[in-house]
Amino acid sequence: MWETRLMLSLSGNQYSNCVGVSRRNFLQLGAPLLGLGLADLFQARATAAETVRPKSNKSLIVFWTHGGMSQQDTYDMKPHAPAEYRGMYRPVSTSVPDIHVTERFPLQAKVMHHISQVRSVHHENGIHAPSAHWMQTGYFGPTLARNAPQKPSFGSVIARTIGAHSEHMPPYVTIPKSEAFGYQGAVYLGKSYNPFEVGTDPNSKNFKIPNLALPDGLTLKSVESRRELLKQFDTLNREVDQSGVIEGLDTFKQQALEMVTGERVRKAFDLNSEDNRLRDQYGRHQYGQSALLARRLVEAGSSCVTINTGYWDHHNDIEKGLETHLPPLDQAMATLIEDLEARGMLDDVMIFCAGEFGRTPMINGHAGRDHWSNCFTVMFAGGGIKGGRVVGASEKFGGAVVERKTTPLDLLATIYQKMGISLETHFDDASGRPTSIVGTGKPVHELF
After folding, report:
1. Domain containing 133: what range?
2. Looking at the domain assignment, is residue 37 inside a domain?
3. Smallest Cα–Cα separation from 194: which of 245, 147, 160, 149?
4. SS (HEC) of 184-211
């Protein structure tokens, strides 16, 4: 039997049971044997009792525009500026008088009464990695010489403070994968609060989750029989291990099994169960199917889902680049808002669209726009955010803040407060020093 071969192939170093496998060995190897590296993901459950978590039913869906969206070509248009500043698109009216957006956002224009913009975001770095860290964590940290993450991402903070709303669901998910710089992770909060990566494009043919697939040669029936094998570990004297590892083991193994075999998780990831008409409405592209999957995940109990939308770094021929991004983003975002509203979920699910910075006011000699962190725009909707508002303002060419300068920490303070997370929350950093999740940040109360 497979179980017999397994028992012969492992050697327990200490405190082995009758089959020669110690609990410590199983903790280290058990999840991979089930086809998953889920032990870290579920370690949070074992320590959850130590954390006083807010009673929150809020969730967050993020559209992360890696590379930097051009504010002048999307939300903060400058139609009266010279051609080299205003760009190639015309503004269109929206459902809110006096708010205009790019003509490439016709669907968002119709739901602008649900959307608010902060047009005065500012930080002081124009390099991708440090800026991505600043926007994902609220803090400046890495440099080109030292680009390792220094602080936990807001997704990991949400996972740590709120957790999943339903048992067995991962609290924090990235679609299709986490961004390349590695700043969407937990750092000193612990690997338990890193995101669960979907691993593949939800719009791909025969979409399935690699991290939920059983390894070759295993069936659900064999995994179910393996439950009996796992029970044998329960006979080990828990007092022989003083490290505290054993205490949480039962929780880890059960949740790993439930995530592999359980119906709730599998159903949440099953896009084929959705009506084809709704899938078409979201759009048969990565943006659309990712947004639909995000809605299904928060509906099933995840508290933060980040959609990494691809590369927006348009130094050359920005119109060509934006044409690949703006229409699908518009379709996905507007449909998500309408879908959440129709399901009565919009008040409980916040949508946040941002990148590491914006783009230069003037179009360069290659028909592109370069990096610009002095003033750029982010978007909010749902989750208790008041829609149809514009906060802050830029000067006539969009290059500097002239009203209501807003920092990355202010944005995160806004998200945390609306999600019910105390702004007084501190966590010990790698050196053991208590570190605030918001520092000097203050919520953007104009959105409340």
Report:
1. 58-210+285-447
2. no
3. 160
4. CCCHHHCHHHCCEECCCCCCCCCCCCHH
